[in-house]
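User: Design a sequence. Structure:
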């Protein structure tokens, strides 16, 4: 395989130590240094995986060439052996020697399996396979049914040891399908049989495990050359360690014991001496005392101990495998083909009975240890009941490869380096603790399989398909992380441990990228946003002058070449008078997908140097042509689905550039030119989203793009989106010097109540990361008139008729005397811009396309927008518009505060939160205000040093008090219109601190109990993050509690947070372990509040259930329906139907179902405590004076992590939006919610994906871990 020479592309990281073996380096202990390395390694692995699947291989040799260097790779099912990188130009002999050796090796030395013979059309076996693939009239239907007299004889009369004497129709159909694809080769495979061999003909495998490394199991419907019967042939690379029995040996023992629920073995055995060599090479290279010794084996594997049996080395991370084949008589049906719920239960019961019989074998009980849906299959069989013969679908329990004898009185020891099982159906106990598999673990796996298949295929009270996908995702694919350990997901735990299976959720969909982007045709875009002196747009193709003639082949050049040619065309033909196109060096390499350039004003360009990135007027972004790479082409084809991730990364890159411009410049909007090969789009970004044009070929239509440049070059700074109320200061300006002087410490600094409306600011102290949204920036500002410092907030507030401003709210709170809230600067108008100002986001106001009807356009004009303009003074909420409307807004307050994380000890943390709780109480109960904050989060609870005195006004002391800030989303108490007439188009809040109630029911109005729960979550976060506790893995705990969500593309809190609040009522260090303790009064505070919150949810859920009408029938059509059951139908196993213990269990279940689960009087009393503020105020005020507080209960700053979450990095603050996580896990999520981001927003719409800190295991369903 060849690869373009690229820095960092070589995936292996080689050790340059000359004392090491110079011939080999193993990638199993190597990790890529960059995404490029990882992508190349993944490409190499996929090639090896393809060859292993299609061909019959023992090993694969691969030549990997990068520029002038090469490596030789040897793949087998255990890993890959890699040589050092060699320059074949300087040292050509090794490469020539390699080619010389390869050209002279026989097939078996090249890695081909000598026991597999490839068939061609000229072989007689090829014709024999085609003949047997043709359906016959004698084929028996496999449909379950009563049998007529003489239709089928008893199995004992027509079946021998190798299967029935007839062929079921599905078996021949499966064999025919395996021959249908001409791309797949056909083989004759040789299988050992008690010292002899038997030959079987196979086509395409019916099942095959993906992945080059591992057991590589393939299952075939095979044709016995000798008997002409169809069989099931399993080809795999089994673990090769002592005490690991062959699967065929185990199943033969079960056959001899008379257990019918397992396959019937025909023959089996290891294939020659074929085994993996990678582990042996690793041990030779890394372990002392192990020497290389070649054998006469065809695999050239070095021997370590004996020829075939090895004890695994704990130090060796690579597993050993041996090639193995087994043939059984039964060709079975996949479990998902079951017909009815009764049939599903019968099939599972058959396998359960088989499991029981195997576990209770006299003196030799066997535990299966891998109960999964793939290992439960269906096989038709004849059953008798009172003389009624029926063809029934029976359950067969397969795949006994990792089964193990049940040890009595002896603790079993490990037989291989890692546990092998299917994550989705492993018991909660095994996922949370390392220990031997027991019978209860296996029974739990059976129950989980029933839950999965019943929920997915049968009718239930989960009404929608998306909710079914969400439920299955939560139960079977989600996990929690504790340090480096991957543990059971919260939903599975709640089902198994807390018995809350019925607590499924109904979800609200989230917005995709397309809902924050609006498309316009080019004419409409120019008319709306780029007014020009020319009255009309020049028709495409009229002018013979083409400034882009040198870009005819732009679809075939790289990003860099495209950028250079395009910039040269602009400058050489003077397309932008007064401006210059120039590349620049991006300040961030986060998205290195293409080349960046921009239009710069002449005064910002210096000849001979690249201009500064921060001075750009219009961005120009380039990307080489690739079909489907344009992120603004919303298509659903498979070709575009394969490019979903590159498109997403490209869109994130464009957003990041626009976000940077908004952050460093004072912008109302920003224009961007996006060029992909020979096509371009014009983009207009604002805080509501992006408006973009259709894709246009600028070579074929040069007049269109030339006209765009003419219009852009004639726009004023204000028309280009720069905020006219912000004046940029240069080093020569006097105000620039004033800022420098003012930043110096001055002991005489005081505040003054008089001030000017002009403020000087520098770099923002806080800057929201998301481009789309309020774009909040916070500055420590200098009042130009008084010289005092203030806090200046610059944001794009939601602009709706029924939304007030934060300044109005603070003015009301200040006048009412509410304590511990910011003090508004006097005389500062709430809105920076008057009502007639045009500074309103236009993305939500523009028509979606040129095809919009005039009637719809008229409604826009009637709602208050200026005719012929995309702007308007005020706007009401519009249910049919997914884009939010924003107005530029600034507010200044006296208090320049510290973030909450700066608290010094737990008692102080409680005091600060108590101050903010008092502010919340006063605002909600004061007759002059009666406001609910509606946005309680850690970022809005601040610290402000304040002088306090005793009751007599004496003994002044400086204390850190709490300030409850950011009242923008506040709303009058008791407003119950959220579901029908929301204040804003979307609910906003910080996901991590929102109540479970609001996250589950996103349209419900905010109540005091929701706000009190948010205060509780703030206390929990800052306590666990910064105080000493008995939690060993704080990062993982924070990630599991605050950052997990449930449902594909849905914003729900069904992780540890939901389980804690709704079900357990207890904070635990980890799943199934002890309580979380801080060994301070904080334990009593959190425990008492949590107890009341849990009772509140119990009462609330019960009252909702009582008030709701009966559940409607499911709106989704079930995949399995209950058909007519013939008279006399019986399950295949019914011996326990009348067992007295079963009747007792049924009675117990019915009694529990009918049990009164209504809240007790104690529950109702506890619930009332979080209905208002009095209880929490009294609790916190009393506990502040508790003598058990310690002044040193805060962890040192060196021990407090402040990065990412989970396995990727340290845990981040919930107020900080997550950065891109490494693509190491199965579910890499898109950017999660940050501060001030609206809910729901920005989640991946896939049915099985989550946020950027992944919480789902990196394994496929059904794969073995």
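Assistant: Done.
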């Amino acid at each position: 395989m060849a690869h373009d020479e690229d820095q960092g592309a070589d995936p292996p990281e080689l050790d340059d130590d000359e004392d090491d073996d110079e011939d080999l380096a193993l990638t199993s202990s190597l990790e890529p240094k960059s995404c490029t390395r990882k992508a190349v390694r993944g490409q190499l692995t996929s090639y090896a995986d393809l060859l292993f699947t299609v061909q019959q291989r023992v090993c694969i040799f691969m030549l990997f060439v990068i520029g002038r260097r090469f490596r030789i790779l040897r793949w087998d099912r255990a890993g890959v052996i890699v040589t050092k990188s060699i320059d074949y130009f300087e040292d050509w002999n090794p490469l020539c020697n390699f080619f010389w050796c390869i050209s002279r090796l026989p097939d078996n030395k090249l890695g081909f399996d000598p026991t597999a013979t490839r068939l061609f059309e000229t072989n007689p076996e090829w014709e024999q396979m085609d003949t047997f693939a043709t359906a016959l009239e004698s084929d028996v239907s496999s449909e379950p049914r009563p049998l007529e007299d003489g239709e089928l004889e008893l199995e004992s009369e027509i079946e021998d040891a190798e299967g029935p004497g007839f062929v079921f129709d599905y078996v021949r159909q499966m064999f025919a399908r395996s021959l249908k694809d001409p791309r797949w080769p056909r083989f004759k495979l040789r299988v050992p049989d008690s010292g002899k061999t038997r030959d079987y003909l196979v086509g395409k495998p019916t099942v095959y495990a993906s992945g080059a490394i591992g057991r590589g199991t393939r299952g075939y419907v095979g044709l016995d050359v000798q008997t002409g019967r169809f069989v099931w042939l399993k080809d795999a690379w089994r673990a090769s360690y002592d005490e690991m029995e062959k699967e065929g040996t185990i199943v033969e023992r079960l056959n001899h014991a008379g257990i019918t629920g397992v396959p019937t073995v025909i023959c089996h055995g290891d294939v020659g001496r074929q085994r993996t060599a990678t582990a042996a090479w690793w041990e030779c290279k890394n372990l002392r005392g192990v020497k290389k010794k070649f054998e006469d084996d065809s695999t050239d594997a070095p021997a370590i101990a004996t020829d075939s049996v090895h004890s695994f080395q704990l130090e060796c991370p690579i597993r050993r495998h041996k090639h193995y084949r087994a043939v059984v008589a039964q060709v079975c049906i996949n479990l998902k083909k079951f017909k009815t719920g009764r049939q599903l239960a019968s099939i599972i019961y058959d396998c359960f009975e088989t499991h029981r019989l195997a576990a209770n074998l006299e003196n030799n009980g066997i535990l299966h240890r891998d109960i999964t849906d793939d290992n439960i299959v269906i096989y038709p069989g004849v059953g008798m009941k009172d003389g009624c013969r029926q063809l029934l679908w029976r359950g067969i329990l397969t795949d006994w490869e990792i089964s193990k004898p049940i040890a009595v009185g002896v603790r079993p020891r490990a037989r291989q380096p890692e546990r092998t099982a299917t994550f989705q159906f492993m018991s909660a106990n095994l996922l949370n603790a390392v220990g031997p598999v027991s019978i209860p673990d296996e029974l739990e796996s059976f129950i989980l399989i029933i839950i999965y298949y019943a929920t997915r295929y049968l009718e239930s009270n989960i009404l929608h398909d998306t909710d079914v996908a969400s439920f299955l995702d939560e139960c079977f694919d989600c996990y929690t992380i504790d340090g480096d350990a991957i543990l059971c997901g919260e939903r599975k735990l709640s089902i198994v441990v807390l018995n809350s299976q019925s607590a499924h959720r109904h979800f609200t969909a989230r917005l995709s990228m397309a809902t924050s982007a609006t498309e316009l045709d080019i004419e409409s875009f120019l008319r709306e946003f780029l007014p020009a002196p020319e009255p009309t747009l020049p028709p495409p193709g009229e002018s013979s002058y083409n400034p882009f003639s040198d870009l005819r082949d732009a679809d075939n050049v790289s990003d860099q070449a495209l950028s250079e040619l395009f910039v040269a065309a602009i400058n050489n033909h003077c397309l932008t008078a007064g401006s210059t196109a120039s590349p620049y060096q991006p300040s961030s390499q986060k998205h290195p997908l293409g080349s960046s350039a921009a239009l710069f004003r002449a005064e910002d360009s210096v000849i001979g140097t690249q201009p500064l990135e921060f001075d750009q007027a219009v961005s120009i972004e380039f990307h080489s042509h690739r079909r489907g790479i344009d992120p603004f082409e919303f298509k659903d084809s498979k070709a575009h689905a394969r490019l979903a991730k590159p498109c997403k990364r490209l869109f994130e890159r464009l957003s990041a550039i626009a976000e940077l411009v908004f952050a460093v410049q004072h912008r109302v909007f920003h224009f961007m030119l996006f060029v992909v090969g020979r096509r371009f789009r014009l983009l207009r970004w604002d805080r509501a989203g992006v408006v973009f044009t259709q894709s246009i070929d600028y070579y074929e239509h040069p007049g269109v793009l030339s006209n765009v440049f003419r219009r852009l070059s004639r726009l004023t700074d204000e028309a280009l989106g720069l905020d006219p109320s912000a004046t940029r200061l240069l080093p020569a300006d006097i105000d620039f010097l004033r800022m420098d002087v003012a930043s110096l410490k001055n002991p005489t600094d005081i505040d003054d109540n008089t001030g000017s409306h002009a403020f000087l600011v520098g770099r923002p102290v806080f800057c929201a990361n998301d481009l789309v949204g309020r774009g909040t920036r916070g500055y420590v500002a200098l009042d130009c008139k008084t010289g005092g410092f203030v806090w200046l907030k610059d944001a794009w507030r939601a602009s709706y008729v029924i939304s007030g401003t934060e300044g109005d709210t603070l003015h009301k709170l200040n006048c009412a005397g509410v304590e511990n809230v910011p003090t508004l600067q006097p005389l500062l108008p709430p809105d920076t811009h008057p009502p007639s100002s045009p500074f309103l986001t236009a993305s939500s106001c523009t028509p979606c396309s040129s095809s919009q009807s005039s009637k719809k356009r008229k409604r826009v004009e009637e709602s208050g927008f200026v005719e012929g303009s995309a702007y308007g003074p005020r706007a009401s909420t519009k249910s049919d518009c997914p884009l939010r409307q924003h107005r530029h807004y600034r507010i200044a307050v006296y208090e320049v505060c510290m973030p909450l994380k700066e608290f010094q000890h737990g008692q102080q943390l409680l005091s600060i939160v108590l101050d903010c709780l008092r502010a919340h109480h006063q605002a909600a109960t004061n007759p002059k205000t009666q406001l609910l904050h509606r946005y309680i989060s850690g970022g809005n609870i601040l610290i402000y040093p304040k002088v306090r005195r005793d009751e007599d006004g004496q003994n002044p002391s400086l204390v850190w008090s709490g300030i409850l800030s950011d009242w923008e989303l506040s709303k009058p108490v008791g407003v119950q219109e959220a579901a029908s007439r929301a204040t804003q188009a979307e609910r906003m809040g910080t996901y991590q601190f929102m109540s479970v109630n609001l996250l589950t029911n996103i349209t419900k109005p905010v109540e005091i109990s929701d706000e009190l729960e948010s205060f509780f979550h703030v206390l929990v976060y800052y306590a666990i993050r910064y105080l000493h506790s008995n939690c060993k893995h704080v990062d993982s705990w924070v990630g599991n509690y605050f950052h997990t969500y449930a449902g594909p593309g849905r914003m729900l809190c069904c992780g540890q947070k939901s389980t804690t609040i709704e079900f357990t009522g207890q904070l635990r260090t980890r799943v199934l372990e002890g309580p979380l303790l801080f060994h301070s009064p904080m334990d009593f505070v959190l425990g008492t509040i949590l107890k009341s919150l849990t009772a509140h949810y119990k009462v609330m859920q019960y009252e909702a259930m009582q008030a709701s009408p009966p559940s409607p029938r499911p709106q989704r059509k079930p995949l399995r329906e209950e058909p007519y059951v013939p008279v006399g139908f019986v399950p295949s196993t019914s011996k326990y139907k009348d067992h007295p213990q079963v009747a007792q269990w049924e009675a117990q279940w019915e009694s529990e179902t009918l049990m009164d689960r209504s809240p007790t009087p104690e529950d109702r009393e506890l619930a009332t405590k979080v209905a208002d503020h009095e209880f929490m105020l009294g609790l916190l005020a009393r506990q502040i004076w508790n003598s058990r507080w310690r002044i040193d209960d805060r962890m040192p700053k060196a021990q407090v992590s402040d990065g990412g979450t989970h396995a990727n990095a340290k845990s981040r603050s919930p107020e900080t939006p997550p950065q891109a996580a490494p693509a190491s896990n199965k579910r890499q999520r898109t950017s999660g919610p940050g501060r001030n981001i609206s809910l729901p927003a920005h989640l991946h719409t896939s049915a099985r994906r989550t946020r950027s800190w992944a919480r789902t295991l990196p394994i496929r369903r059904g794969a073995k871990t």
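The first helix runs from residue 35 to 54. The two ends are 29 Å apart (CA to CA).
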